[in-house]
Design a protein that fits this description.
This protein is α+β, with helices and mostly antiparallel strands. Helices cover 16% and strands 31% of the residues. The chain is built from eight helices and 31 strands. The strands form eight sheets. It has a seven-stranded parallel sheet with strand order 28-27-26-25-31-30-29, covered by helices on one side. It has a six-stranded antiparallel sheet with strand order 3-2-4-10-7-8, with no helix packed on it. Residues 28-147 form the Glycosyl hydrolases family 2 sugar binding domain.
Length: 592
């Protein structure tokens, strides 16, 4: 498996942290930082902001728990500090300098040259600080970051352990900077964001612009040029007099060939480039490159539709771990290698499990045509604090990932994690309903699954998890649809498809976890009995996959999983991405 970094988009820059919002002036701050543990939490009192202790160095963006960081200590530390210096280049003069963090787990407080820059709570959403007024010209500028983490099950933590050791499906925790850190030089008046919404039925695309500094500038003009494979499609211009601006434009004129051939789909992932230029009078003040895909996800008559055609989803569970860097991808090539392996095995998509993935991963799924279910990292207890933390960060995530055409489903909850009493508890039921509708208020165009695999409340898809080993047993359980959808009773001995008071409303049904087959190992676990040969593995894999495919009302499946993860050894690939069975044989079973 060799990763291919041939991009289909005009503005692609290798390793650029936000491929959907590209500017020319930026500084990569990944690399060596000073680092110190603060187990006694004395850093504030001892003014580490001004007198950072001489200690270790760490390779950002890898966390101290990983070998890639240069430290590799797996013990939990509740507070850590980072420091590095940088040089402000001449081109930053007259610009605003924005410090971006793509992901810091969990609570980050930042100072620049001793001055407070900002604070953010949440491990999975990105955030930024305008640090212009704290900078000095040239060399010697200093960033200090304090990160506070906990083993609390009230904070969204996904698959991170909290008991000091790996157990079940929970792995070494992630503390601190785990995604890219970078600087960007921008104008005072600029684009803050663009929300891009395709509408294939009306053959239109809508841009919702959010601008900074527009209210005080009476002579602003915004231009956008859309191109497709280098050919101009549409150019539009409009006057700007407020911070929020919406415009729609036709996508028909100028496109060569039948319209349907230019939609985005796994087999044909067409992407349109778009460049936004903001002018103040005749002077250009901002230029941003982006892209989008014209595609539609909808549900009708118990089926998921892609571009108004039935979509059978062949997904694989992907937890996004690597042996030496854990949740942080070791390189952009590593991301692409995983995506290409998934496609090579005959899957048309993935369920990104308990992790908000790097934006570059989603970019390559957009480029290569791989469907994605985006799933939030779970908390594991329920009270008002957990509700507040989860809701705040989930909204940030949905807003930040909205433009990616590859994302076709939102999954805020999985297997009742953090809502463990949802079967009976009205508060937890209403929480999931609230998150469902809150998500729909931001994005009414994608399906939302409220409790993947277990007791659903309101949900656009009914998803079920079942790790039965044999296809014959699976078929007997699921051959009669009414036994699954007919009431609130259990299926497969103890699982409930719906919480009390909720029932089937004609949703598509997908088996969103199954399989988990592991070869015999003394070092880890899988689901069911372990197998001792390639032949035994493929026979069982074919048995259960074939049974699912043979049931007409099931609209797709998600196999567990692409790779081993630490002590969980049920991947189709090892943790270091070596195939356990020939990938072409997996492909034959998936596509047969």
């Amino acid at each position: 498996m060799v990763a291919t970094l041939t991009s289909a988009t005009k503005f692609y820059k290798e390793n650029y942290p936000r491929p959907q919002f590209v500017r020319s002036q930026w500084i990569d701050l990944n690399g060596e930082w000073d680092f110190s543990f603060d187990d006694k939490q004395t850093g504030d009192a001892q003014r580490w902001v001004e007198h950072f202790p001489i200690g270790q160095t760490i390779h950002v963006p890898f966390t101290y728990e990983t070998k890639a960081s240069g430290i590799g200590e797996e013990k939990f530390h509740p507070q850590v500090w980072y420091r590095r210096t940088f040089t402000l280049p001449p081109e930053a003069e007259g610009k605003r300098t924005i410090l971006h963090f793509e992901g810091v787990d969990y609570k980050a407080t930042c100072w620049v040259n001793g001055g407070w820059a900002g604070q953010h709570e949440g491990a999975y959403a990105r955030f930024s600080f305008d640090i212009t007024d704290l900078l000095q010209p040239g060399a010697g500028n200093e960033i200090v970051l304090k990160v506070e983490d906990s083993d609390s099950c009230l904070q969204p933590r996904g698959k991170q352990r909290w008991a000091g050791r790996n157990h079940d499906g929970f792995y070494v925790q992630t503390t601190g900077i785990w995604k890219a850190v970078w600087l960007e030089h921008v104008s005072e008046t600029r684009l803050d964001s663009v929300k891009i919404t395709p509408d294939i039925d009306r053959q239109m695309v809508r841009f919702d612009f959010r601008l900074h500094g527009a209210e005080t500038k009476p002579n602003l003009r915004l231009e956008a040029e859309i191109t497709f494979k280098g050919e101009p499609i549409r150019k539009l211009g409009l006057s700007v007099d407020r911070a929020w601006l919406t415009v729609e434009t036709s996508m028909m004129n100028g496109i060569n060939g039948p319209w349907l051939q230019n939609l985005w789909s796994p087999g044909n992932p067409n992407l349109f480039d778009v460049e936004f230029v903001l002018y103040e009078g005749d002077q250009e003040v901002d230029r941003v490159g982006s892209y989008f895909g014209m595609r539609k996800i909808s549900i009708k008559d118990g089926q998921v539709l892609l571009n108004n055609l039935p979509l059978y989803q062949r997904l694989i569970l992907d937890q996004g771990y690597w042996p030496d860097s854990h949740l942080t991808p070791p390189s952009e090539e590593a991301l692409v290698k995983d995506i290409e392996a998934i496609a090579e095995m005959g899957y048309n998509g993935l369920r990104k499990h308990m992790k908000i993935e790097d934006a570059r991963f989603l970019y390559w799924c957009d480029v290569k045509g791989l469907l994605v279910w985006s799933e939030m990292a779970a908390a594991y207890e329920f009270n008002d604090e957990a509700v507040e933390r989860f809701s705040r960060e989930w909204v940030e995530v949905v807003q930040q990932q909205y433009n990616h055409p590859c994302i076709i489903t939102w999954v805020p909850f999985n297997e009742s994690w953090g809502i463990q009493n949802i079967l009976h508890d009205v508060r937890q039921q209403k929480f999931t309903e609230g998150i469902y509708h809150l998500t729909k208020s931001i994005d009414p165009y994608r399906p939302v699954i409220t409790n993947d695999g277990w007791e659903h409340t309101v949900s656009d898809i009914l998803t079920l998890h079942d790790y039965v080993e044999r296809g014959e047993a699976f078929y007997e359980t699921y051959k009669d649809k009414s036994l699954i959808t007919g009431g609130t009773g259990t299926y497969n001995e103890w699982k409930f498809p719906f919480a009390e008071g909720y029932g089937y409303k004609g949703q598509p049904i997908i088996i969103s976890e199954f399989g988990g087959i592991a070869f015999k190992s003394e070092q880890g676990w899988g689901y069911g009995n372990q197998v001792d040969s390639e032949e035994a593995f493929l026979e069982r894999f074919a048995s259960i996959t074939g049974a699912i495919k043979s049931i007409p009302y099931i609209a797709g499946y998600c196999y567990t999983q692409i790779t081993d993860v630490q002590h969980e050894v049920n991947g189709l690939l090892t943790e270091d991405r070596k195939p356990k069975v020939p990938l072409e044989k997996v492909r034959e079973i998936n596509l047969g």
